[in-house]
Write a structure and sequence with these properties.
This protein is mainly alpha-helical. The protein has one domain. About 60% of the residues lie in helices and about 5% in strands. Strands 1-2 form a two-stranded antiparallel sheet. β1 and β2 form a beta hairpin. It is globular and about 40 Å long. The N and C termini lie far apart (about 45 Å). About 25% of the residues are buried.
């Protein structure tokens, strides 16, 4: 992973990695509890697509036997987020929505690590970018008021 992210998805991945490193030192990590967190995130991002969830599970299994055990499955996560943006979700909106979902998961799973998450998240991915446009995005020239009426 790059230290300087190229886009919001990479910035989110870096945020997750930094949060794990700061909040859960490798020698005392509760790997199964962290993997449960990543599995919950995978389920939220993939819904009923079992094959997509399996990609997350395979990466977590690979990490489990390394010094990186308990880290998020970054490749699977980035792949899924990229799929969602290619399907039409705006990258900044998606990343901030997932950032906020992670806050709720952390509140449930690791309440003592929530303040650290919020601090890192505010520094790396401020909420204000949620509705920002990327430079290559063109604003819509017409507004849709109702499905059957356009302005």
């Amino acid at each position: 992973m790059r230290t300087q992210p190229r886009n919001a998805i990479e910035a989110f991945s870096l945020l997750l990695l930094q949060w794990v490193d700061v909040s859960f030192p490798a020698q005392s990590r509760e790997v199964s509890k962290l993997n449960h967190l990543w599995f919950s995130l995978a389920q939220a991002l993939c819904g009923s697509h079992r094959s997509k969830i399996a990609v997350f599970q395979r990466e977590m299994a690979q990490l489990r036997s390394t010094v990186r055990a308990g880290e998020p499955p970054i490749q699977a996560l980035e792949q899924r987020l990229n799929e969602l943006t290619q399907a039409g979700l705006r990258e900044y909106f998606l990343v901030i929505a997932v950032r906020q979902a992670m806050e709720q998961l952390i509140l449930t799973e690791y309440p003592p690590a929530l303040d650290q998450w919020k601090q890192l998240a505010d520094d790396m991915l401020p909420l204000q970018i949620q509705f920002a446009r990327q430079s290559n995005e063109m604003p819509s020239v017409r507004a849709i008021l109702r499905p059957d009426v356009e302005a």
